[in-house]
Specification:
253 residues, alpha+beta, six-stranded antiparallel sheet, globular
Amino acid sequence: MSVLQRFEKRLEGLVEGAFAKVFKGVVHPVEILNAMQREAEAHKAILAGGRTLVPNRYVIDLSPYDHSRLAPYAAALAQELAQSQAEFIGEQAWTVYGDVIVEIERGEGLDTGMFRVTAEVYTGGEVAPVSAPGYDAGQSGYPSYDQGGGYGPPAGHGGGRNIRLVSGDGRTYPLQMGSTVIGRGDQANLRLPDVGISRRHARLDFDGGQVVLTDLGSTNGTMVNGQRVSAVALNPGDMIQLGTTTLTFRVDG
């Protein structure tokens, strides 16, 4: 039995036989899980040693109507989605930072039957969910599953070193442990006044050993050393371009 089949069977028990009635005319959870799986595939990052990192936190925005209809089942549905996504990631032998987390929220402006899935690598720091512009039937990211033995910080930067971004005009932006959202909106941790940058454009995840850069479905994309990327582990000296802004990744010490 496939992950999707097991998920659907558990949902039938979840709503006590009212499955068809509850989900008639609203977005179907299987569509959400499908989108989460597609996004995991699309946002893989290859780490040292050949391991494949995928996202572990998913924020699902439902239309106001769908959200109100599914509200009584939201917590249980989020748990089932997380479990099924973890199973999927395990079958692919991918790596994650921690447990798969799924949050279901009300997405203002979405039509009935439409949804957004936003994904990120969540390392335990305080991170605001990031909306990823894109196709409405799912924009997603990083599932999480422990393959046994856990996932330790990869060899790389850290250990008291000075990790920072340096802009073309010499401005310096130190990176802290956890996640840093780059954009021009109010909810970005690192705000850049560049009209070519989305409000939530990209995210940097620093676990003390490595920094992973992830594009958050930005309109104009994220470039590293001239190549468009979805998620990539950074090396000292890498040139990151967002809009017309260029940032150099520096590691000292």
